[in-house]
Amino acid sequence: MPRIPPSAVMRLAGLAERQSEGRFDRSASRRTYFGATYFTVPLPRVRAAFAGQRVREMGAGELARTLGAHPLLRLRLLRMAREEAERRIAKAGGGERRGEELMAPGTARITSVVSSEGDAVVFEVGVEIPCAACGGRGGESGRGVGEAGSG
Question: Tens of pLDDT along the chain (151 residues)?
Fold first, then answer.
Protein backbone atom coordinates (compact mmCIF):
# COMPACT_ATOMS: atom_id res chain seq x y z
CA MET A 1 0.00 0.00 0.00
CA PRO A 2 1.39 3.45 -0.86
CA ARG A 3 2.61 5.62 1.97
CA ILE A 4 1.08 9.04 2.65
CA PRO A 5 3.58 11.36 4.34
CA PRO A 6 2.57 12.77 7.74
CA SER A 7 2.91 16.30 6.34
CA ALA A 8 -0.06 15.61 4.03
CA VAL A 9 -2.51 14.78 6.84
CA MET A 10 -3.60 18.36 7.52
CA ARG A 11 -4.16 18.99 3.81
CA LEU A 12 -6.17 15.79 3.46
CA ALA A 13 -8.30 16.61 6.52
CA GLY A 14 -8.92 20.05 5.05
CA LEU A 15 -10.31 18.49 1.88
CA ALA A 16 -13.06 16.67 3.76
CA GLU A 17 -16.63 17.87 3.67
CA ARG A 18 -17.98 17.76 7.23
CA GLN A 19 -21.48 17.12 8.52
CA SER A 20 -22.30 16.78 12.22
CA GLU A 21 -25.33 15.91 14.27
CA GLY A 22 -25.85 15.30 17.94
CA ARG A 23 -28.12 15.50 20.94
CA PHE A 24 -28.11 15.29 24.71
CA ASP A 25 -29.65 12.40 26.59
CA ARG A 26 -31.00 13.89 29.77
CA SER A 27 -32.97 10.85 30.92
CA ALA A 28 -30.26 9.68 33.31
CA SER A 29 -28.89 11.54 36.31
CA ARG A 30 -26.04 12.78 34.12
CA ARG A 31 -26.33 14.43 30.77
CA THR A 32 -24.57 12.62 27.96
CA TYR A 33 -23.87 14.02 24.53
CA PHE A 34 -24.25 11.58 21.64
CA GLY A 35 -23.08 12.75 18.25
CA ALA A 36 -21.72 11.76 14.89
CA THR A 37 -19.53 13.60 12.43
CA TYR A 38 -19.24 12.44 8.85
CA PHE A 39 -16.14 13.40 6.89
CA THR A 40 -16.52 12.85 3.16
CA VAL A 41 -13.29 13.04 1.16
CA PRO A 42 -14.03 13.27 -2.58
CA LEU A 43 -11.31 11.41 -4.50
CA PRO A 44 -11.26 13.94 -7.38
CA ARG A 45 -10.47 16.65 -4.82
CA VAL A 46 -7.59 14.53 -3.48
CA ARG A 47 -6.25 14.02 -6.99
CA ALA A 48 -6.41 17.76 -7.68
CA ALA A 49 -4.69 18.68 -4.40
CA PHE A 50 -1.98 16.02 -4.71
CA ALA A 51 -0.97 16.18 -8.32
CA GLY A 52 1.89 13.69 -7.95
CA GLN A 53 2.16 10.93 -10.52
CA ARG A 54 1.57 8.16 -7.98
CA VAL A 55 -1.80 9.63 -6.92
CA ARG A 56 -2.88 10.06 -10.55
CA GLU A 57 -1.99 6.42 -11.29
CA MET A 58 -3.94 4.97 -8.36
CA GLY A 59 -7.37 3.58 -9.05
CA ALA A 60 -10.30 4.82 -6.99
CA GLY A 61 -10.37 1.64 -4.87
CA GLU A 62 -6.66 1.76 -4.09
CA LEU A 63 -6.78 5.46 -3.24
CA ALA A 64 -9.83 4.91 -1.01
CA ARG A 65 -8.11 2.02 0.83
CA THR A 66 -4.95 4.10 1.26
CA LEU A 67 -6.85 7.02 2.78
CA GLY A 68 -9.00 4.77 4.98
CA ALA A 69 -5.98 2.92 6.35
CA HIS A 70 -3.92 6.03 7.14
CA PRO A 71 -3.63 6.12 10.96
CA LEU A 72 -2.65 9.79 11.26
CA LEU A 73 -5.50 10.93 9.01
CA ARG A 74 -7.95 8.88 11.03
CA LEU A 75 -6.57 10.28 14.30
CA ARG A 76 -6.85 13.85 12.98
CA LEU A 77 -10.48 13.30 11.99
CA LEU A 78 -11.25 11.75 15.40
CA ARG A 79 -9.83 14.84 17.07
CA MET A 80 -11.83 17.13 14.79
CA ALA A 81 -15.02 15.23 15.69
CA ARG A 82 -14.24 15.55 19.42
CA GLU A 83 -13.63 19.30 18.99
CA GLU A 84 -16.97 19.64 17.19
CA ALA A 85 -18.74 17.82 20.03
CA GLU A 86 -17.07 20.06 22.61
CA ARG A 87 -18.22 23.17 20.70
CA ARG A 88 -21.77 21.85 20.72
CA ILE A 89 -21.57 21.05 24.44
CA ALA A 90 -20.26 24.53 25.21
CA LYS A 91 -23.00 26.13 23.12
CA ALA A 92 -25.77 24.04 24.70
CA GLY A 93 -24.35 24.53 28.17
CA GLY A 94 -24.25 28.30 27.76
CA GLY A 95 -26.07 27.91 30.91
CA GLU A 96 -27.58 30.60 32.93
CA ARG A 97 -29.84 32.29 30.41
CA ARG A 98 -31.67 28.98 29.95
CA GLY A 99 -31.72 28.15 33.62
CA GLU A 100 -29.36 25.21 33.14
CA GLU A 101 -26.03 24.51 34.74
CA LEU A 102 -22.82 24.94 32.82
CA MET A 103 -21.43 21.63 31.56
CA ALA A 104 -17.91 20.26 31.35
CA PRO A 105 -17.19 17.39 28.98
CA GLY A 106 -15.81 14.19 30.45
CA THR A 107 -13.87 11.38 28.81
CA ALA A 108 -15.17 10.61 25.33
CA ARG A 109 -15.92 7.22 23.87
CA ILE A 110 -15.22 7.34 20.17
CA THR A 111 -15.96 4.88 17.40
CA SER A 112 -15.15 5.18 13.74
CA VAL A 113 -16.03 3.43 10.52
CA VAL A 114 -14.50 4.00 7.10
CA SER A 115 -16.33 3.21 3.90
CA SER A 116 -16.20 3.99 0.19
CA GLU A 117 -19.20 5.55 -1.45
CA GLY A 118 -18.87 6.10 -5.17
CA ASP A 119 -15.93 8.39 -5.78
CA ALA A 120 -15.43 9.32 -2.11
CA VAL A 121 -14.17 7.96 1.19
CA VAL A 122 -16.45 8.49 4.18
CA PHE A 123 -15.15 8.53 7.75
CA GLU A 124 -18.02 8.24 10.24
CA VAL A 125 -17.00 9.18 13.77
CA GLY A 126 -19.36 8.51 16.68
CA VAL A 127 -18.85 10.40 19.93
CA GLU A 128 -20.35 9.78 23.38
CA ILE A 129 -19.36 12.29 26.05
CA PRO A 130 -20.72 12.36 29.60
CA CYS A 131 -21.06 15.92 30.87
CA ALA A 132 -20.62 16.98 34.46
CA ALA A 133 -22.14 20.10 35.95
CA CYS A 134 -19.41 22.62 36.66
CA GLY A 135 -21.43 25.30 38.36
CA GLY A 136 -24.23 27.54 37.31
CA ARG A 137 -27.34 28.90 38.98
CA GLY A 138 -27.09 29.19 42.69
CA GLY A 139 -23.33 28.62 42.66
CA GLU A 140 -23.64 24.89 43.21
CA SER A 141 -20.99 22.80 41.64
CA GLY A 142 -21.21 19.23 40.43
CA ARG A 143 -18.49 16.71 39.96
CA GLY A 144 -15.56 18.15 38.04
CA VAL A 145 -13.95 16.57 35.04
CA GLY A 146 -11.28 14.13 36.19
CA GLU A 147 -12.86 13.42 39.56
CA ALA A 148 -13.96 9.89 40.41
CA GLY A 149 -16.97 8.95 38.36
CA SER A 150 -16.68 11.95 36.03
CA GLY A 151 -16.35 9.93 32.85
Answer: 566 777 888 888 999 999 999 988 877 667 888 999 999 999 888 888 877 777 777 888 888 888 888 889 999 999 999 999 888 888 876 544 455 556 677 778 989 998 888 889 899 999 998 887 655 443 333 333 333 343 3
Q: Is 60 helix (H, G, I), strand (E, B) or coil?
A: helix
CB distance 129 to 108 below 8 Å:
yes
Question: Nearest to residue 90, comparing CAs of 38, 47, 33?
Answer: 33
Name the burial class of residue 134, with classes exposed (0-12), middle (13-18) and buried (19+) by CB atoms within 10 angstroms of its CB.
Answer: middle
Q: How far is CA 73 from CA 5, 11, 64, 80, in A?
A: 10, 10, 12, 11
